[in-house]
C-alpha cells in the first residue's frame, strides 16, 4: 500500500500528488530534497526517512522528479515498475505543457492524472500477484542427487582427484 506518489519540477512546483495512507508527504519529500537532490547524491534512487522508504526517479530532460513513498517495513516489488510506467505516461501525456518550461504555464496547467495513475497502480499490483511463488528445489532435482555417492566419498590416505592433478603440475 502506497503512502503517497508525487510529481514535481526541479524548481519545486508540485504538478500532481496522490495521497494514499499518509496525511502529508511534505516532510519526507522535503527531507529527500535536502538530503539527496540538493547535494546531488542520487546514486541508488532510494531514500529512507523515519518509517518511510522513498523511491524516486529524475527526468533531466523535462526537469521532473517522481517520488513514491511507502512504509519501509513493506517489500513492494512493483514500485520500480510503477514509477517507470507513471514516468513514461505522464511525460508522454503532458509533453507540450512541460516543454514550455515556464513556471506560469506549469501553474496554469491542469494535470488530471488521477484516473491514469490508479489504473497503472492497479495493473502493477495485479502483475506482482500473478507471479508464481518460487518453490524450493527437491533434492532429487539438484545436481548433487545426480552424482553417484562414490564420487563424493573421500577415503583416508587417498587424495581427491583435483588435488592430485594440481600437485603434479
UniProtKB/TrEMBL annotation:
One CC-aspect GO term: signal recognition particle receptor complex
Domain of life: Eukaryota
Pfam families: SRP-alpha_N (PF04086)
Region (Disordered): 132-169
Keyword terms, alphabetized: Receptor
Domain Signal recognition particle receptor alpha subunit N-terminal: residue ranges: 28-168
GO molecular function: GTP binding; GTPase activity; signal recognition particle binding
The organism's taxonomic lineage, starting at the top: Eukaryota, Metazoa, Chordata, Craniata, Vertebrata
Feature: compositional bias, Basic and acidic residues: 137-146, 153-169
Originating gene: SRPR
Name under which the protein is recorded: Signal recognition particle receptor subunit alpha
One GO-annotated biological process of the protein: intracellular protein transport
